[in-house]
Amino acid sequence: MFEINAIALNSIFAVIITVIVCFIISTLLPGIERKYVHARIQQRIGPPVTSPGIMAPIKFLFKENIKPSSPVPGLYKALPVICFLVVLFLFIALTPFAYAIPALASLVAIVGLLKVEEICYVLMGALSKSIMSVRMPFPDRVKGAAHLNTTRSFIEDISARRSLRMITYGSFPLYLALFAPVTQARSIFLQDIVMYQQTHGPFLFTVAGGISAVVFFIGYMIMLNEYPFSIIKAKCDVIEGPYMEYASKYRSVVFITRGFLMLTLGVLFSVLFIGIPPTVFSPTILINIFVVLVFVFMMGIFSAFTPVFTNRQLLPTILGSTLLGILAIVIGLL
Amino acid sequence: MEEKVPRSNIIETEIPMGTVHPAALEPYRVRLFVEDEIVQEAEITIGVNHRGIERIMEGLPVEKANSLTEKICGICSNAHIWNSCRTAEIGLDIEIPERARYIRVIMSELERLHSHFLYLAHGCETVAHETFSMRAFYLRETVMELLAMIGGNRVQYGCSVLGGVRPRCDLDEAKLLRLKDDLDKIEEGLTDFAQRFMADSILISRVTGVGALPAEQAIRLAVTGPSLRATGVARDLRTTMFEYDDFDFNIITQPDGDVKSNLLMRALESFESINIIRQAIANIPEGKVVNRDWEMFDTDIIESYIEVPRGTLYHSYALESGRVRHCVIRTPSMANIGAMQYACIGDHITDAQLCIVQCDPCFTCTDRAIEIIRR
Amino acid sequence: MGIKSFSRARAIHVMLVYTGGCNGCDIEIVNSILSPRFDAEQYKVFLTWNPREADVLVVTGPVTHLNRKPLEAIYEAIPEPKLVVAAGSCALMGGVYKNIHGDIPSEEIEGPVENIIPVAAKIPGCAVRPQDVLAGVVSLLPTLLDAD
Q1: Does the pTM exceed 0.90?
Q2: Residue B283 maps to which CATH number?
């Protein structure tokens, strides 16, 4: 009895250390993307690496906590925290210590957690009522103006509708790519997927794995709302979309969550496609970090060279990558 | 608006944007009436910038009024001061030295370059392509430095005065040499930019067919300037201006009137501007730059039209004992507002600001007129 | 230097509000941030369009009638500590639009930015130069760092 407790304590301790180490790395990722990829491509010096990921969130912690303009301020404020916890659980599910809880360390749980994340965006968009559109005090409904009796929408409402659309079909490629390794390992539990790859070699280097890795990358960019898939927070119409009303602590949580999600999705790839779970007690964590950095660099390059997509480009891209994902699963099954 | 009928007449909701918005470089309000993210109608409210500059000009000595017109717009400031001086010069029969005329053309074409580069940068920024936008801004910086070299300031140079140009703006050998060198640099950079732009299939697919404006509709809406030429109508006031008699240049047109044609149009027109400046540098005559030998007398209302980077600019005033009376200024964006509202129809909301930007709006210029709506 | 001042010095979010100037200052400011030649991000100055994110509000233009309320609303939306930079002579003192015919005050503008919201730094120039904009925003640092 005592021994089991000691092992459990040990695991918890290991999880905490792993989370802390990876969290610190994750705060550097937005800065790395901005400074070493975007700024390099744009031929400028760019911000210090620490500024976008670490210093900005810390700065926001010390700002005045303004009551957001939202019909349900309490829920609206809770959403970024929920998002962060979801990402945290997602990361814990990927560590080898979570294998003891099969319900958590399975693809179903991972998909569920990612879905929660996406639903949070919808709620955020629907609950945010920012100053930048309808509430701007400007006499535009005056005598002589067109259509005086229409309903008016905030720009975040468009954003909420778009994130709903992203839930229904936008994130499809990512989920297909997540299930591609299952066709080989014949199990949805991460432990089995990792074990299978440790005996049979990484799934990445098979045909199905290669195809689904591409699909995973597209899904990764969609999930992170990075250009060109940033339709829910495109600067040219919805400005920042769901995040418009967050100030102080909540904005800093939003910033941190983004970095951590970048890391977690990269680690997810290394677990599912290379078979290396993250743990600080093994040097293989360097491979995890390497995969994360490769993803960040690739995303930076893609986003620096693409404009934001509208439906005309988005639908074919998503359709194409979904078909690729199905192809990968079919090849895997054969 | 017959040709471009909205897909349905149902207006689901209204999305107002502005007056402060990242895609707009100046304050205006746009109300988009949408159905399922497709714009069915757009209404642009201007007048946000109304500062009453014509009222300030009324009764000012003409020299002061000229330098005041420059403050109408920070993008085409030289065009305003040039046209304002030109108005008085036409009325008072002032002969302008050849050299001054050449320097005015050089300034005007440099300004066209910087305005068109700003357009390219702003257009790319509005489709959220930060890298191309930064590249265009980088190109523009060279032009800005040339303008600062000639006029002494980066934005408002105050080049033209009655009877010629300010002696500060005279071009000596060193300045001409630098102008020549930098033009080569600009041309090289622009060629590179245009090639990369055309080779970028994602960007091209993003801007092709967006905000299309048919030629007949453009004429009906009285669109002017590059926005009109991008629909295929070859109409450029520079062909009728005596200042441009000595120069060879082509009128660029593009077929479709969409954002791609507009962007390309600006890029190609910039090459023509470079060409004109080169001719001016090669043939610049010697002599004085300002003619002080003229007399002031009262005149009737004088009118002057010139082609500025955005289209046709109209200045008119009467002179009464050396002071400006009945001043009217009509800027090209005034005519293009109809085109902006029209171009939005049928496009996605994400493209709506792009459709407005494609007509190169300059509402700070425009906000003087009062539109009377009869209902 | 505490962690508060340290972090504030390393991430300054700037929001730009144009209130009816001639476009010259607006474009110079956008230029100073977007152009690789000036690249404000290397001085840890980031451009944002969301008032909830901003620390420094850069205001250009003489504040016309229709712009007064939006400007106030945006200023209200920024969480403390916030500082306002007035850029360009119009924002500083009304510029050429201040008076009609000598010294009759113009009825078209609501006066310089100071009349509407408290201004912490003024950047002169018509139009402001990008270098001056950066210098002006960075000059606010001591005030910003010591704020609560």
Answers
A1: yes
A2: 1.10.645.10
